[in-house]
């Protein structure tokens, strides 16, 4: 049970909330859904039966889900995890902490919820994992960090991919100031690292890696640039396996005259229309190149592949 549910906000929680507001870069707290867009950032996506679930960064204190049965109307579910429920979070000696960039995956008849824990400075970021009964919780933290940062690597932006061809459970993570992608194979329990997997750095990688597979081809997509200005964009590469080697394919999503800094995305195949869609965040109502402050918006829209399997660059002006 969180401190709020228990009926009080401690001084420690108040300090965390202040830092969370800074680290979350103005992400709105009690956002209301508006068609296919809501306030938030860093969405991951999962489809269960006929429902699409998005898991965005929220307020730094809690992590929640948004669910839709028609890709137009979204309802908020949760929270799934509260920062006060993570017993090991203070072990690094940092004064403040925040949660961001979650990812949910189904395995072993349960759901596993991965998330980044900051600060990134002065103490290294870490990645945790919670076990959930349903796509919307309740979730129970595993009791320890899964991987940690340091030595030039920032343990952020986890994404877990269960390869349908091999059954391997792969954790992609890393980026930001280190701009380093790392890859691990998870044990069958999904909460333990089995081994580190060597991986080449894809061109222009900064953070927010995502893996999906279509027609036997693997697509590694990721963000490039600085999250709070117009340089933020999505690039992608393809491979014959989920571990590379990568064939760089170019820019998929970038700023235009109306929307700025799109990135930190996820792909999903819609149970509604059978098409592939992308979920991402962007800055709206910005006229310059940044840096920006305020709230980002989460957007979903369909994508297209050409005859050769390349993804058609996303048009935000549609």
- How does CATH name the architecture? 5 Propeller
Overall helicity: under 10%
Alpha carbon gap, first and last residue: 44 Å
Poorly predicted regions are: 1-35
* CATH superfamily label: Glycosyl hydrolase domain, family 43
Tell me the Rg in angstroms.
18 Å
Structural class: mainly beta
Count of discrete alpha- or pi-helical segments spanning 4 or more residues: 2
CATH topology: Tachylectin-2, Chain A
Using the coordinates above, name the CATH class: Mainly Beta
- Give the ordered list of helices and strands: HHEEEEEEEEEEEEEEEEEEEEE
Characterize the largest beta sheet: strand count, sense, and whether it forms a barrel. 5 strands, antiparallel
Q: How many domains?
A: 1
The shape is globular
What is the strand content?
35-45%
Let me know the number of strands.
21
User: What is the residue-mean pLDDT, rounded to a whole number?
Assistant: 89
Q: Which characteristics define this entry?
A:
2 helices, Tachylectin-2, Chain A, disordered N terminus, single chain, globular, 318 residues, four-stranded antiparallel β-sheet, mainly beta, five-stranded antiparallel β-sheet
């Amino acid at each position: 049970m969180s401190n709020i549910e228990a009926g009080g906000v401690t001084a420690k929680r108040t300090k965390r909330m202040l830092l969370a507001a800074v680290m979350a870069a103005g992400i709105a707290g009690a956002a209301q859904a508006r068609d296919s867009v809501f306030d938030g950032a860093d969405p991951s996506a999962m489809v269960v039966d006929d429902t699409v679930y998005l898991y965005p960064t929220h307020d730094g204190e809690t992590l929640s889900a948004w669910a839709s049965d028609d890709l137009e109307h979204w309802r908020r579910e949760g929270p799934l995890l509260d920062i006060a429920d993570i017993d090991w979070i203070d072990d690094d000696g940092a004064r403040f902490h925040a949660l961001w960039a979650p990812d949910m995956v189904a395995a072993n008849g349960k759901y596993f919820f991965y998330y980044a824990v900051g600060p990134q400075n002065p103490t290294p970021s870490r990645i945790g994992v919670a076990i959930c009964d349903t796509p919307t919780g309740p979730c129970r933290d595993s009791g320890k960090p899964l991987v940690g940062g340091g030595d030039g690597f920032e343990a952020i932006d986890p994404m877990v991919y269960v390869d349908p061809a091999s059954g391997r459970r792969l954790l992609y993570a890393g980026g930001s100031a280190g701009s380093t992608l790392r890859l691990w194979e998870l044990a069958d329990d999904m909460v333990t690292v089995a081994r580190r997997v060597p991986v080449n750095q894809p061109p222009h990688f900064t953070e927010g890696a995502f893996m999906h597979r279509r027609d036997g081809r693997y697509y590694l997509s990721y963000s490039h640039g600085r999250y709070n200005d117009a340089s933020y964009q999505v690039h992608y590469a393809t491979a014959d396996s989920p571990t590379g080697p990568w064939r760089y394919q170019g820019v998929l999503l970038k700023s235009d005259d109306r929307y700025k800094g799109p990135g930190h995305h996820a792909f999903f195949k819609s149970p509604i229309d059978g098409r592939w869609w992308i979920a991402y965040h962007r800055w709206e109502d910005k006229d310059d190149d940044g840096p920006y402050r305020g709230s980002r918006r989460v957007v979903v829209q369909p994508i297209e592949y050409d005859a050769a399997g390349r993804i058609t660059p996303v048009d935000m002006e549609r």
